[in-house]
Structure formats: structure tokens, C-alpha cells
Amino acid sequence: MSKPRILVTRRWPVAVETVLSERFDTTLNKDDVALEAGQLREALLTYDAVLPTVSDKLPSQLFEGEAIRTKILGNFGVGFNHIDVAAAKERGVVVTNTPGVLTDCTADIAMLLLLSVARRGGEGEREVRAGAWTGWRPTHLVGTKVTGKTVGIIGFGRIGRAFAQRCHFGFGMDVVFYNRSAIDPMEASRYGAMQLQTVEDVLEVSDFVSLHCPGGAENRHLMNADRFTAMKPGAFLINTARGDVVDEAALVTALERGTIRGAGLDVYEAEPHVPERLREMDNVVLLPHLGSATEETRTAMGMKVVDNITAFFAGHQPPDRVV
Length: 323
Ligand code: DGY
Known about the structure:
Helix content is about 35%, strand content about 15%. The protein is an alpha/beta fold. It has a 7-stranded parallel β-sheet, sandwiched between helices. It starts with a strand and ends in a 10-residue tail after the last helix. The structure holds (2R)-2,3-dihydroxypropanoic acid. (2R)-2,3-dihydroxypropanoic acid binds near residues 77, 102 and 292.
């Protein structure tokens, strides 16, 4: 029996590409250039499985028209707001993701952003590299103390909890959170956290607000102009979730006007585009979507995709099926 034809849309860790090539009739993207919409459409017509990442936009139009050959999209990533899953489902395409394995590393990046923006790490690094440091002085690059402050978490899933744990037990912070569904207070207390009723309740009391909810229609622009105004004056926003959770234009205005003090961002509305006005500000720390970027985690994510498509083509339920 011939092996399923699969397309891997970007370079993946070598260990994962090796397993995929052994098990399937695999096409790799050796140049690692993101595919255009037309190439993705072509891929849906010619491969049994397409393995996309967040850089591959798969809106409903790509699933329309001529019958597609693809039976499974094995997404490399936990977030899947770049795929119109309703359209995929309608065309009988299974979609899987990679939950669980990137929890700690993404929470670490949120912590990195919180510390960097509070303690002005990015500014300091730029100053040293530019050869502009003139020496120690009591008023130099004075930041905001983290220990003892309140952090507000929006979305108390795996990553939100891991971040709460770091903030509370690692940095002595008070942790409050908003989550759509009620979390057992005993469970919340394991992470040193307390649930509040509304997003506004969280914004009102938090020195740092960190986003850990999914992207996509339900949370689009959850942080908008009104909500920036509802934040404590002098508070910071951290976003390692998805760019579309934040109204980026409203964020820029809030930062420029001093409505909030700063932001640490790993994700953006139109990646890889980062607005110039943001890039010009010293009170923001900007990372290029590094949440899961460790050797261990990227390999584990790839192996999850391998497990999902292996199960699927063996006629079993893929462990991380989304639709
Ligand atoms: C994820 O897993 O969702 C990361 O953000 C990469 O897409």
C-alpha cells in the first residue's frame, strides 16, 4: 500500500522531519519560506495531509470549490486561529493541534516579558550594545518592582496556570484571573490565584495584565480602548497569546498617551508586521513569537503532530483532534 502524501509547510526540527520522512511520502519545505495562499490551496488538492503552522493562513475560501484531497491538517502549534476550522470540518477535514507540551516554555516567555518591561531590560541592553552606557548612577534606567505586585491573568488554561504559579511562588506576586468558566477555588489556590467575575474586575486591580486566552473570533480585540482605560494607571500589558486578542492601534494610542505604562509583546495582529510606532517606543519589549521556541518544546510539538497523523492514517482517533 502506498504511503500517505504529506506536506510539511515549514522547516521542522530535524528529528521530527526524519520520522515523518520514514513513515510517510513526505515533502519538506527546505527553503523554509512561508507558502502563499495559492500554494496552500494547491497543497489541499494534492496531499493527503498538510502540516501547517501559525504562518499559514487557511481561511474558508481555501476549502471551497473543487474537491480537496487533504483529509487531515496536523497543525504544529496549540493555537489554530489561522485555520477556519468550521470550513475544514464542513469539507470533512480533521484538524489536530499540539496542546500540553509548550505550557512551561510559553509561561517562561510571559515571565521574561514581564520582567524585561518592568525592569527596562530591553532599553538597558540596547544602551550597552550601542556603547552609550556612561556608568552606574542612582537614577539610571529605574524600573518598576515586581515582587509583591498584582498580576491579572486573562484565561486560566494550562499556560495561564503555569504563569500564575511562576508569578506567585517565584516572585511573591498576588494573582487574580478572569476565566469564562468557573474554576474550583481549591484548584486556583494551587497556583496561588483567585478568580474574579469580569475582565474589568481584573483590570482594575492589576499592575500587570497577561493574556492567556485563545485567539480567533470569540476574543478578537478583547483588549480595546475602553479596557486600556480600565487598567490601573501605570500598569503593563503582556501578550503571549495571539495578536488579534489586542486592538493593536488602541494599544499604540494607550502607550503613547501614557494610559498604560508599557507592554511586553510576543504576538501581533498581522505577523510578521510590527507597527513602526510600536517599534519606536522604549517602553515596550518586542519578541518575534518565541513562546514555544526551545529545542525540547519544538521537538515535542513536532512529535505530537507525528502521533496525530500516524493515528489518523492507522484508522484511529488522533489524540489532539480539534474538529
Ligand atoms: C502555538 O503553539 O500556538 C504557538 O503560538 C505557535 O503557533
